[in-house]
Amino acid sequence: MFELAEPAEQAVLVHVNFPQEQSTEDLQELRMLVASAGVAVLGELSCSRQAPDAKLFIGTGKAAELAALVADTAASVVIFNNELSPSQTRNLERLCQVRVIDRTSLILDIFAQRARTYEGKLQVELAQLQHLASRLIRGFDNERQKGGIGLRGPGETRLETDRRLLRERVKALKARLEKLGRQREQGRRARQRSEQPVISIVGYTNAGKSSLFNRLTRAEVYAADQLFATLDPTLRQINLPQFGEAILADTVGFIRHLPHDLVAAFKSTLQETRDADLQLHVIDAADPRRDENMRQVQLVLTEIDAAEVPQLLVFNKIDQLAQQPRIEYNEQGLPAAVWLSALTGAGLDLLQQALIERLSQQYLQLQLCLPPHYSQLRAQLFALQAVQHEQYLEDGSYQLQLKLAAAQWARLLKQYGQPLENYIVRPPVF
C-alpha cells in the first residue's frame, strides 16, 4: 500500500471586461495567480458588460454558458477574476453545482500556502476569517435552534453559533497579533537606537525582490518565477563600503486590487516599509505592464501611509532587454533609478553606490588627534574606509584626516560619548 498524491484542482476561469478596467492585463494576471495556487485550468469564459448583474454578476445567458462549460470539462471549481458578493456566489454555485470563488479568495488561498512563520499564519487566518464573516451560510435549516427532547427553548441558530465562534476567533487572533506587533516594535526601536538605516524592498509581486535581496545579503530566501513566492518578511544586515552597516528588509509583494482584509491583517508587517529610511522600489523592466504595476504599488504604499518615504527605483531583469546597467540621477544630483539584473548580478555595484549616496546625502570632513588607547576607534574608521590621511605624532598619538557620512559620525559619537569630541582638531565641514 502506498499513498497517492492528491490530484490538483481543476478550474474554469471567468473574466468580465468592464469599460473602466484594463481587462487583458488582469486576465493574464489571473492565469499567473491560478498557476501560483497550483490549480489546473480546463477552460476560460470571457464577456463584456457595462455593469455587474446583481444576481449572477455575468447575466443569465452567460451564467448558463458557464454551467455548460463546467459540466463539459468536469471542473471542480470556478474562479472569477473579480470580487463577488455573497449572494452572487451562492446563486452561481447553485447553477454550476461546483464551488465558486472570487479573486480575493484566490489570493487568500495563495497566502495561506505561502505563510511559514507563526505571525504570517495568524495574519492569513485573520484575513480569511474577516473575508468569511459576510459569507457564512447554512442550508434550509438556518433558523432551526439547537436542542431536542428536554432541551427546547430559547437558544441560537446554527448560523448564529458560527458567527459567534468566528467573532471569538477573530478577537483572539487580533490579541495575539497585537502582542507580536509590540515585540516587532521593540525590535524597530532597538534598530533606531543603533542608528542603523533601514532599507525596505517593495514592489509588484514577481518583480524579483527576493532575488535581489539574496544577491545583496547572500541569504537563501525562497525565490521563484511565480506570484507571491515569498510572504513572510525577512530582515538581514548588510555592509555598504564607505558607509557601514544597514538593515535590509524584504516584504510581501503587492498586486492590483490587493484585498483590504489582507492590508489590514498585514499592517504590522508592512510597518517595516512605513518606518524605513529608504525604499527600494523593484520594478520588472521587461514587463509590458510596468507603468501600471508601478502605479498600483504607489496606491498600496499610500494606503499604508508609506508614500512619503524616500524611494530609489530599481529596474530589474535588464538581462531580458537590450539595456546596460546604469544609474539615473534627479535634478538634485541624487540617484533616482538603477538599472540592473538580480539574476546575473550586473549592476549590483551601481546599486551599492546609489544606496551609499542616498543614505549619506551629506558627507563631512574632519580631523581627529587620537591617543594610542583609541586603537579600536582607529580600526573602525579604517574599516569604514573613512581615513584619507594618517600621521603619527611624537607622543604616540595619531592624527587622522577623515571623510565619512554624517550618519556614521553620529553613530560613533553615540558609541564613544562626549570624550570623542575633545579630540577634534578641525570641526566637521559638510
Describe this structure in words.
The protein is an alpha/beta fold and 430 residues long. It is 40% helix and 22% strand. The protein has a seven-stranded mixed sheet, sandwiched between helices. Helix 5 (118-132) runs antiparallel to helix 6. It starts with 9 loop residues before the first strand and ends with a strand. The model is unreliable at 1-6 and 138-153 (pLDDT under 50).
Any descriptors?
22% strand, four-stranded parallel β-sheet, 40% helix, alpha/beta, 13 helices, 15 strands, seven-stranded mixed β-sheet, 430 residues, disordered N terminus
Short description, anyone?
The protein is of the alpha/beta class. The chain has 13 helices and 15 strands.
Instruction: Please give the order of strands in the largest beta sheet.
Output: 6-7-5-8-9-11-10
Uncertain residue ranges: 1-6, 138-153
Number of helices: 13
**Helix/strand order:** EHEHEHEHHHEHEEHHEHEEEHEHEEHE
**% residues in beta strands:** 15-25%
Shape descriptor reads: elongated
Radius of gyration: 28 Å
* Helix-strand category: alpha/beta
Query: What about the largest sheet?
Result: 7 strands, mixed
Q: Helix proportion of residues, in percent?
A: 25-40%
Q: Average pLDDT across residues?
A: 79
Q: What's the β-strand tally?
A: 15
Beginning-to-end CA distance, first to last residue: 76 Å
